[in-house]
Write a structure and sequence with these properties.
Length: 286
């Protein structure tokens, strides 16, 4: 990766770390308290205007599981729209503001007022077709990749050729390096602040070079690669591999992918919102 990209990335992350530090402390406290974990997975039925979808929630992502259960029990999802639908990619819902939204309303910002810490169980759970994952704001304002308190999406994706998957693997390897670098920046936060305050550009340059070397060395120790399960899934049933390791996958559709496909094929207009409203009529714990 180019050095100037690393330096730019370091400065951006530093600013975001400072900005986000005060915005996430109370968020996790507002989320549901973890329930007792057992080996049986929780199942939820989403009755939509196009048919029923049944998902199961992974026990390895307990904060996302328990929050989802809490919102279902409160009736939060009853009446919300699928406000963002992109064919061969995903269908997204969970914006509480969409329940009363007019046809020209801009949607995508509604939530319960808190976020959930990322729970990446990767590569065990990844973005194969039918994966249930949490939406979130982008890295620039959300470097910790915390999930929305309510919005989620279901992956439809597309089947990848071997060449496409090879290119995607190279891209994900670069993302892994960026993640390593961001962690190192976080670990050196205090030193970077001091160097910036003293306008010590030479010191920042030296630190930048050291973090680049550390990033390359750590990445070389554990080169990125897709598992056999990922390769098989992405070349047979499809998915969205470019999202792997960046958004929390916390469940999977076990019934009703035909309904998901109906929704993804709906005609859409501005901001990828379906022209005719498609909603979750009722969500129920099974």
């Amino acid at each position: 990766m180019e050095r100037n990209l690393f330096l730019s990335f370091m400065m951006v992350v530093l600013t975001l770390i400072s900005c986000s530090a005060n915005n996430t402390e109370s968020a996790s406290e507002s989320a549901a308290q973890p329930q007792t974990t057992n080996s049986k997975m929780t199942k939820v039925k989403l009755e939509t205007t196009m048919g029923d979808i049944v998902v199961e929630l992974y026990n390895e992502t307990p904060q996302h599981r328990d929050n989802f259960v809490k919102l279902v029990q409160e009736g939060y999802y009853d009446g919300v729209l699928f406000h963002r639908v992109i064919k061969d990619f995903m269908i997204q819902t969970g914006d509480g503001n969409s329940k009363t939204a007019g046809p020209d309303a801009t949607l995508g910002d509604g939530d319960p007022g808190y976020t959930i810490p990322a729970e990446f169980v990767y590569p065990k759970y990844f973005h194969k077709r039918g994966a249930l994952a949490a939406a979130r704001t982008g890295d620039q304002v959300n470097p910790e990749r915390r999930s929305s308190g309510s919005q989620f999406y279901i992956v439809t994706g597309k089947i990848c050729s071997s060449d496409e998957l090879k290119m995607m693997t190279q891209r994900l390897a670069t993302v892994k390096k960026q993640d390593i670098f961001r962690r190192l920046v976080n670990e050196n936060h205090a030193q970077i602040e001091t160097l910036q305050r003293n306008q010590d550009n030479e010191g920042l340059n030296e630190l930048q070079n050291r973090l680049i070397q550390q990033t390359e060395a750590e990445a070389a120790q554990s080169p990125f690669s897709l598992t056999d399960e990922q390769i098989d899934a992405y070349t047979s049933v499809g998915g969205t591999p470019h999202l792997d390791g960046q958004y929390t996958v916390f469940g999977q559709v076990i019934e009703g992918m035909d309904v998901v496909d109906k929704i993804q094929n709906a005609q859409t207009g501005r901001m990828d919102r379906p022209v005719s409203d498609i909603k979750i009529v009722k969500a129920t714990i099974l």
